[in-house]
Amino acid sequence: MRIRLGAALASALTFAIGLVVILGLLLPDETLLPQTWVNLIRSVTSVLLQLTTITAALAILVGIFNLLLVHLSRLFKRERGFLYSLVLIISFFVVIITYFFAREVNTLLLENIQRTVESALAGLLFFALVYGAYRMMHQRVTWASVVFILVVLFVLVAALPFDIPALQEIRAWLMSIPVNAGARGLLLGIALATVVTGVRVLIGVDRSYRD
Amino acid sequence: MSLVNTQIVAILVLVIVFVAVVGVPRLRGGNKRPLRRIRAYDMLPAMVGSSIEADRPLHLSLGSAGVGSETTLLAIASAELVYYVVQRATIGDTPPIVSVSNPLTLPLAQDTLRRAYQSRGLSNRFSGLSARWYPSGSRSLAFAAGVTAMMGVERPSGHVLVGSYGAELALILMGTSRRRVPTIAASDQLDGQAIAYVMSDAPLIGEEVFVSNAYLGESARTETTALDLLRWLVILTMLGGAVVSIINRGV
Lengths: 211, 251
Description:
- The complex is a heterodimer.
- The relative contact order of chain A is 0.07.
- Chain A is extended and about 65 Å long.
- By secondary structure, chain A is mainly α.
- Chain A has 6 helices and no strands.
- Chain B has 9 helices and 6 strands; from the N terminus they run H-H-E-H-E-H-E-H-E-H-E-H-E-H-H.
- The longest helix of chain B is centred in the last third of the chain and has 29 residues, at about 220-250.
- The interface between A and B is large, with 60 and 77 residues.
């Protein structure tokens, strides 16, 4: 079996760093290890976690660079939708300039354009969900989809401010027993899969190390 | 005391998973166990084929799944799925588009694309601009707006939305539905998952996103075997806990 040096190094580095961080986070105050070792592992873990935070902060610059490159490329090549790219680039520079030279205008832009547009989109969500329900019944009428729509309608009706205790009790039961059980099942499945993926990455058997 | 217990449980879980990942697949027949059919994975080859035939890009998105946050492993698992899809789509003229809303995931997306092209010996066709960052606001609505705008301009032939999404997924899926474009969706958030189930053509539910290696790759079915084992352990622990609780009440 041929082992590439780069891949082996990447796996070893990941394994070593992962092990140190896990030890640093999981080691209790009183262990069989000498206290100096415990302190050393904890300080290395702290430095590594700080590095992650700094990298995360710097990554926003990578994102901005990518966004500008994508839209500048579309603009210069006069590709379909290049006018939108032009608007984006102008907006980008206007926001940067106003932030440094006219902070009030910047705040005004944020509150009157950005927040208004986001609020409008949030309002559209309701229609998107109704459309989704319609589409579900239109495309495939299965027992699961019928139950899903009936439960949604029931929960919505029971949430209305009518004083019908029976409706509200059934709604409360639905939310606390079947909905809660389903949600926990989903989250448990995701959690188990996350742990398995984590261990695979940690011990270097993930395929990405081999490329 | 409770802190020590949590740490012991965490170490115990890690040891069990380690044994499950390393040891169980090596058992006889571990790699030959049949996999149950998942519609989304069945649909993927056809989606890639129609993208190549129509000369239109395939859009893959990781949503707000981000390296460095609690969704790190979801981002890695979603990137794995993206890798297999892009690997199949590299023979087409139009490169697939990968969108992310977390800037830390952008290098992961670019590296995934690079590796997929490299695995086919087509490194010269890789472009880092195929991975795109759409910034998200407090509720990822800006990301949804960006992706919806991209749909109008680039006209993707299909969408694979696997990662972390909230209610904003409804806006994206409404756009794909109106354009009658096939969509696969999954989210680790409950509201996003519910919307994916209702509005996408083939949802991936819960842990199904994490097993793309077994369904699309050629390597060992490590994840599925380990997951099955863990699932049975959880079921047995829950049943055991219930039995103990009943016995204690009886006493």
